[in-house]
Design a protein that fits this description.
The complex is a heterodimer. Chain A has 14 helices and nine strands. By secondary structure, chain A is of the alpha/beta class. Chain A has one domain: TIM Barrel. In chain A, α8 runs parallel beside α9. By secondary structure, chain B is mainly alpha-helical. Chain B is built from 15 helices and five strands. In chain B, strands 2-1-3-4-5 form a five-stranded parallel β-sheet, sandwiched between helices. The radius of gyration of chain B is 48 Å and the shape is elongated. The chains are: A alpha/beta, B mainly alpha. At the A-B interface, β3 and α7 of A face α8, α11, α13 and α14 of B.
Amino acid sequence: MNSIERVLGALTFGKAGTPDRVPVLPVPLMQGALVHDCTARDYFQMPVEKLADAQIALNEMLDGIPDGVAGFPHVVEDVTGFGVPLKYDYENSSPTVGGMLIRDFADLDTFSTPDPTASPQLCKTLDVIRSLRRRIGDEKVVIGAAIAPFSLPSMLMGTAKWMRLLYSDELRSRYFDRVMDVCSRFVISWAKAQQAAGAHVVVLADGMASATIIPRRMFSKYAAPVTKRTIAAIGGLVAYEPVGVIEPFVELTGDLGAVAILIGEEDDIATCKRRLGGKAAVIGNVNNMKMRRWSPARVELQAKGALKAGMPGYGFALANQGPEIPFDVTPEAIAALVRTVDRYGRYDTGRHARLAS
Amino acid sequence: MTVSDPNNPGVAAGGPSGEIARDLYHQLNYIHDVIASSMALGDLLHTLESDGLDDTFAQVDGELLATAKEIAATSRRTLEACRGLVASLDESIRAFEQIDEKLRALIEANKAIGDVAETIDDFAKQTSLLALNARIEAARAGEAGMGFAVVADQVASLARHIEKQSMTIRESIGDVGRNVDDVAALTAEEKRRLDGHHVAVASVVEMTEGLGGHASKLPEMVERLDGFLEPLNDARRAASVNRMIGVTTGNLLRNVSRIHEQICEPERGADSAGGLTGFTERMTGALVNGANIPVESMLNNLLRDGAKPEHCLTAIGRAVEAANMQQKRRHVSVGDYYLNFLLVERAMKTVEASIDGGLSLSMPVVIGNARGDYHSLGREMVGLFLKASGIEVIDVGLGAEASAFVEAVVRSGARVIGVSSLLIESGKQISTIRRLLDERGMNDVKIVAGGACFVIDPDFGTEVGADYTATAASDMVSIVRGVYQSGSDRGRAAA
């Protein structure tokens, strides 16, 4: 059974075939620098083939166990589609937004949807996806990513300004629909471009939509409708990551049309699965920050706990919580995560039954 | 549950009635503190109760007993298995000892064969010499010795053959000897290994017996554990009573606070909203429930009725702190806090507009987003909540270098720094700030870490050298008050 079959089987609760084991989808992005023995900053700016080489090498370093490779260097790059540059403040950290596109609410009057393929940075990512797909074929899942429409404005105007717009009746009634329309169109065309380039699944990262950031009523009224429309328009396999706690209203994410929900480290896997009621699978949720300090044995323990909660009835893939694994998580800790799944996450040996008992 | 501002100028200016009012005020505040502590204790006990600690105890009891039984059963099975293993090892050791004996006999026999071969070899050499002598004698005998010479040649040939065979026998004996030595060495090694296994298994037997003994004590320990349940039940009953006391004393305090306001603030007069206390209560409720209240008109009414702007500010600050205390007990999103921020912002604007020359603030605090961090929301909320609580804020802004925080401390004399960060590398800037502070001998300046990376991993703050981690924007107020309060306590103690 290859990774594509395994992931499809697991995420469809066995409807697309019985998975032999739980899929494991760690997201090492900056770790590509380790492959090329350079800083993360230099790695992000390497040519296409070097980025693809690193993803494949990382997968091989982990004994080929991970079921996917990331076609995107870092999701923050989406802002370059709007002409916003990236900034690298540290050698081994992800890039940040180099400036704000919307400095004043009046700027929203002329806010319009750009063509993502006009950004050299995003074109490079499309080339990385093409390269990975060409080299991996349909053996492993090629993962694409985009910032969800509800969160994209926070990257273009700042979180404080976006919150002010959301919580001001006057500003919201004047701008919200327009901003969502512009952002949704961008996300749809960007995600579709990634699919066309070869991404098997696109993850929509919605950092502003978790229960950590907004209350249930705001998710239901403002975040969910635009997300649902966007996912429907993208088509294909889309996973949804609220990047934070989602358990308090996880059942609302089941109606978004996403094949899987990436939950937060505080969320209870079994509870989320139960509340989703089979409408979407669960992916998660080993604490990526704590992995920095955890020994391989501790990671194994944590991963076993996640497997125990997530394995029954399929519909689960193990992954780190958050958008990526921090740079200073040791390769041994990442290896422990994937090897635990290989050893204890098998449906075909009855091992999971012992783990669950 | 709130009381009015202790620094009310109406008290000092009120003559004897002012003195009485001040005493009464202090006594009320004392009652307030006692009740607050009592309520906090009640809350704690309530939390213990709602956390199902006794259920946990019961569950632990059951699990311990089950585990004890399991350990005892496993110990028995292990002992049986070990004893079988020991018997088997004993047999193997005895077998090896017998092999060893046989090998020694074989070595001796081989040596004896070697001796025989050497004797045969000697015989062959002597026979060969004898045959040579016979040939010499036959030659001397001439024609008559010809037949004897043939016999001598045959004897010489036989002697050479015997010598050759003897050499082969000796070589074979040597090979057998070496092989036997090897087998003997291997046998000795295996025996030593078996002896070691024997000792190890004997230890396992001993440990298992010990484990069985400990397991038998577990039920007794469970009984002792059950003993803890009794005080917990008492505590639960106390919590229930305490909550009733809390409600009653809360009502009492509200009434005496109103009386206090009338005595201490005669110049302000009463208003329909119940004065500053009523405002604080209503504001607290709005903050907790995310409700929209006409805060501008409420404050303008108070100001018009004679309330001092600084008292209004104190009332707003108390509402923020009271709401924070309540909100910490349940899941609250950043958005919920942002609603609070917006309400407090409106209240602050109203109060500031009534003050000439700006607010009078104390307890300076430096806040900022660390280098590489451009997420201003948390910092802006923290800044406003601090200001609303009468705390002076020195904001070094977005993406601030470590040195900027330290320079701001030097300029302002602040004793607290608040560092906000979403990303790990930016969060690590705290260790640089700590180092710079230490280099300047400012070891007593406290650093508070806030932001996503510190919430996801609460130990990250400690890792990078922070003294506190704020999990919500409004946490900073109580942390700052605590730092300055502990400092003044130290000062008083030193004096």
